[in-house]
Every structure is written in C-alpha cells, then in structure tokens.
C-alpha cells in the first residue's frame, strides 16, 4: 500500500481531529447562547471541581499549557466570571469562580446537556457510551506516561 493511502485510511491523528472538530462545533453552537466557548465552559467546570486552583493546577487538570490557560482566563476575568487573587504566600495566584460565573455556568448547563443529547442521538446511546469508556481508558493510559 502506498504511504498516502495508508495515512488517509489509518491515521489516528486525522481521525481524532475530525471527530474533535465535529464535537467542538456541536458544543460551540450550544454554548453560544450563553456567550461561552467549550474551552471556557470546561475551565469553569475545572475551577469548580478544584474549588480553588492556581494556574499550574488548572493547566494540569485540563492538560493545557499555562499560556493557553492565561489566554482563556482573560475574558472570564474581564466578564467577572472568575476572580484571580493572591494566595497566602503571595507567589501563587488563585483562581475562583464568582457568583456571576456560577449563574452563567448553570445557564450553560442546559446547552451542555443538549449537546450531549444531540451527540447521543447522532451516534446512538450504546456507541456514545462505548466511545466515552474508550476515551476514559485512553486518557488513563496516556496520563500514566
């Protein structure tokens, strides 16, 4: 088999990027009505789960670099959805979600649920559940490396 046909048929990078773009568009369309991007919604989720995190903790939880975290935090801070304050030792900036951030997050939850449901309707519940399980397994294996 020639290289280009092998790559076109079997490339995990291309396949995952294609699926990622499709899923991103699904969530982008849904969250647009509350003015958040899927990345921002994920960040608000992580900030709440972590309760209070510094930039490094958030970057680690979301598997993003610090530059991407900072870039995506700027509009959340500007819009009053998160607050960055100093920690006790004044060397770490701690990130917390504001009351306004929680309220917008809750409004966005219905949009998130709809995107989840739309994807289930397209793929089928069984395939969606299999995909979720496989992704969890891949993330667990990659996370150990």
From TrEMBL:
GO terms for molecular function: DNA binding; DNA-binding transcription factor activity. Pfam families: MarR_2. Keywords: DNA-binding, Transcription, Transcription regulation. The keyword DNA-binding applies. InterPro entries: HTH_MarR-typ, WH-like_DNA-bd_sf, WH_DNA-bd_sf. Residues 9-140 form the HTH marR-type domain. PANTHER family: TRANSCRIPTIONAL REGULATOR, MARR (PTHR42756), TRANSCRIPTIONAL REPRESSOR OF EMRAB OPERON (PTHR42756:SF1). This is HTH marR-type domain-containing protein. It comes from uncultured Sulfurovum sp.
């Amino acid at each position: 088999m020639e290289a280009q046909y092998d790559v076109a048929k079997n490339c995990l990078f291309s396949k995952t990027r294609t699926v990622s773009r499709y899923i991103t568009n699904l969530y982008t369309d849904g969250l647009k009505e509350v003015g958040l991007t899927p990345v921002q919604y994920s960040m608000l989720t992580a900030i709440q789960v972590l309760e209070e995190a510094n930039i490094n903790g958030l970057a680690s939880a979301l598997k993003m670099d610090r530059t991407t975290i900072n870039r995506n935090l700027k509009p959340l801070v500007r819009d009053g959805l998160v607050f960055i304050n100093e920690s006790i030792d004044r060397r770490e900036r701690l990130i917390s979600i504001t009351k306004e951030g929680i309220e917008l997050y809750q409004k966005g939850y219905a949009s998130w649920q709809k995107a989840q449901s739309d994807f289930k309707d397209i793929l089928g519940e069984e395939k969606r559940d299999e995909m979720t399980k496989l992704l969890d397994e891949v993330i667990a294996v990659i996370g150990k490396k």
